[in-house]
C-alpha cells in the first residue's frame, strides 16, 4: 500500500471537485468569484516552463535499471549496455533509452533514511517528513503557486494515474486535477442529453442567486470561496477549446504505438500534449516496482513499458522543439536491496538509488555521484532529496529559499533546508 491509499490523504482532489461541480450543474457560486489570482510573475532566469515527473511508484531497483553492477554478487542476471555517451552504461532492459543520453543525465547517489513507502513517497513529493498535524504541499502545487498558470483555462498541475495528492497547506486551489485513465481523460464535460444551453444558463442563474444568499450568511468561510473557485474552473474548462489537449485520438496511430499502447506509454503521450497546452506540472504514475518477489521477471516487464514510453517522450519533445523548456524527471521513493532475497526479489533500500533528468536546462551526458561496487552506499557525492528539489527549482526559476505561508501564518520554505543547493554538476 502506498501513501495515496492512506485515509489521511484521501481528500477531495481537484478532479473530484471539478467532476462533482460539472455533474451538479457547474456554475454554483459564480457570483462569489474574484478575478483570477493564480498568475505570479515568473523569473527571467527560468530555463524550464513545465515539468513532467515520471513517478516509478513502489521503489524502482536502481541495480536493475539505471545503476547496473553486472558481475557483482549483488548484480543479478542483467547485463549493462553502452549508451550514446561514452562510459555511461545502463541496464540491457532499457535499450531505447540508452540511445538518448546526449540529452539525459543521471543522479546515482540519491540517499535518505526513509524505507517506508508512505513516508518516503511523501518526502520525495514534498521535501518534508510527514507530520500527523500538518499536510505539506507537493512540488507540483508549489510550482503552481510560484509561477501561476500558463493557460488560464487549464489546471496548472495534473496527475495521470490512480495516485494523486491533496494540495496541503496551500489550499485546494492548488490541488492537482486527476486523470485516472489517459484513454478517458476528461469526462462529464458536456451537458446532459436532457439539457440544452438555454436551460443550463437558466439553472446557473438560479443557483447563483441561492449561492449569493448562502454566502451572505456565512461570510469568512474559506471553504465557500474554495468551492466557488473550483466551480468557476469547472465551467471554464467545459467551455474552453483547451480540453482538446486531453483527447489522444488527435494523435496519429503510429505515434501512439511508438509510445507503447500501455497505460504508462499513453500517459507519457498525454503529458506531452498537456505541456503543449500550457500545463506547468504533470505527474505520470507508473506503479508496480515493489518487487519483493520475482524481481527480475517483473523488472523486465516494467522496463519494456518504461523504455518505450520515455524514449518516445524525449524524441517527441525534441522533435517539437520543446525539450529545452520541459524538465523530464524520472524517480522513485527509494531503491531496492543489493541482496537478493529467497523469493528472487529485492527489498526496500533508501541508502542509495537513482534518478534520471533531461531537458529544461539540464546538460545531457552527465552522471552525478557513484555507488560502491555492490550498489549499497553512495561512494561519491551523496545527493539529498532537498538538493533534487532545489535542482528542479533552479530549472523553473523558483527561489528554493522562498517561503509560503500556512493558513495559521506558519512560514514553509520551498526547500526545507536552506543549506541544500541545486546539483550544479547538472548545469554545464
How would you characterize the overall build of this protein?
This protein is α/β, with parallel strands linked by helices. The chain folds into 2 domains: 1-33 and 197-246, no CATH class; 48-185 and 247-406, Alkaline Phosphatase, subunit A (3-Layer(aba) Sandwich). Helix content is 31%, strand content 14%. The protein contains 10 helices and 16 strands. It has helices at residues 14-24, 95-98, 117-126, 139-147, 197-217, 222-239, 253-259, 263-277, 295-319, 385-396; strands spanning 50-55, 80-82, 89-91, 104-110, 157-160, 177-179, 281-285, 326-331, 335-336, 348-349, 353-358, 367-368, 370-371, 378-380, 403-405, 411-413. An 8-stranded mixed sheet has the order 6-5-7-1-8-11-4-12, sandwiched between helices. The chain has a two-stranded antiparallel ribbon with strand order 2-3. The protein has a two-stranded antiparallel sheet with strand order 9-10. Strand 2 (80-82) and strand 3 form a beta hairpin. The two termini are 39 Å apart. The model is unreliable at 1-44 (pLDDT under 50).
Amino acid at each position: 500500500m502506498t501513501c495515496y491509499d492512506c485515509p489521511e490523504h484521501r481528500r477531495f482532489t481537484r478532479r473530484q471537485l471539478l467532476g462533482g461541480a460539472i455533474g451538479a450543474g457547474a456554475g454554483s457560486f459564480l457570483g462569489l468569484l474574484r478575478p483570477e489570482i493564480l498568475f505570479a510573475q515568473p523569473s527571467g532566469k527560468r530555463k524550464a516552463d513545465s515539468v513532467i515527473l515520471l513517478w516509478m511508484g513502489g521503489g524502482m531497483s536502481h541495480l536493475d535499471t539505471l545503476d547496473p553492477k553486472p558481475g557483482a554478487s549483488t548484480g543479478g542476471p542483467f547485463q549493462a549496455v553502452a549508451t550514446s555517451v561514452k562510459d555511461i552504461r545502463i541496464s540491457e532492459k532499457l535499450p531505447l533509452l540508452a540511445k538518448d543520453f546526449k540529452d539525459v543525465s543521471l543522479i546515482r547517489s540519491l540517499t535518505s533514511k526513509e524505507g517506508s513507502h508512505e513516508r518516503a513517497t511523501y518526502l520525495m513529493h514534498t521535501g518534508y517528513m510527514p507530520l500527523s498535524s500538518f499536510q505539506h504541499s507537493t512540488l507540483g502545487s508549489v510550482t503552481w503557486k510560484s509561477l501561476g498558470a500558463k493557460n488560464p483555462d487549464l489546471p496548472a498541475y495534473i496527475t495521470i494515474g490512480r495516485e494523486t495528492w491533496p494540495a496541503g497547506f496551500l489550499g485546494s486551489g492548488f490541488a492537482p486535477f486527476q486523470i485516472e485513465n489517459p484513454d478517458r481523460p476528461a469526462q462529464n464535460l458536456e451537458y446532459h442529453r436532457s439539457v440544452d444551453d438555454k436551460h443550463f444558463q437558466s439553472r446557473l442563474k438560479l443557483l447563483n442567486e441561492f449561492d449569493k444568499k448562502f454566502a451572505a450568511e456565512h461570510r469568512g468561510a474559506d471553504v465557500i470561496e474554495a468551492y466557488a473557485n473550483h466551480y468557476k474552473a469547472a465551467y471554464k474548462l467545459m467551455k474552453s477549446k483547451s480540453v482538446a489537449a486531453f483527447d489522444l485520438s488527435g494523435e496519429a496511430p503510429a505515434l501512439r504505438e511508438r509510445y507503447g499502447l500501455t497505460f504508462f506509454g499513453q500517459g507519457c503521450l498525454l503529458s506531452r500534449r498537456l505541456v503543449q497546452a500550457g500545463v506547468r506540472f504533470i505527474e505520470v504514475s507508473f506503479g508496480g516496482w515493489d518487487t519483493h518477489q520475482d524481481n527480475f521477471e517483473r523488472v523486465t516487464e516494467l522496463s519494456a513499458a518504461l523504455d518505450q514510453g520515455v524514449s518516445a517522450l524525449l524524441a517527441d519533445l525534441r522533435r517539437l522543439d520543446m525539450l529545452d523548456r520541459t524538465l523530464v524527471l524520472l524517480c522513485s521513493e527509494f531503491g531496492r536491496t543489493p541482496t537478493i532475497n529467497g523469493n528472487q526479489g529485492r527489498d526496500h533500500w533508501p541508502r542509495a538509488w537513482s534518478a534520471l533528468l533531461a531537458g529544461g536546462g539540464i546538460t545531457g551526458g552527465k552522471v552525478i555521484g557513484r555507488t560502491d561496487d555492490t550498489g549499497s552506499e553512495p561512494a561519491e557525492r551523496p545527493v539529498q532529496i532537498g538538493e533534487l528539489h532545489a535542482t528542479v527549482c533552479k530549472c523553473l526559476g523558483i527561489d528554493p529559499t522562498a517561503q509560503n505561508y500556512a493558513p495559521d501564518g506558519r512560514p514553509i520554505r520551498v526547500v526545507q533546508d536552506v543549506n541544500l543547493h541545486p546539483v550544479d554538476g547538472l548545469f554545464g
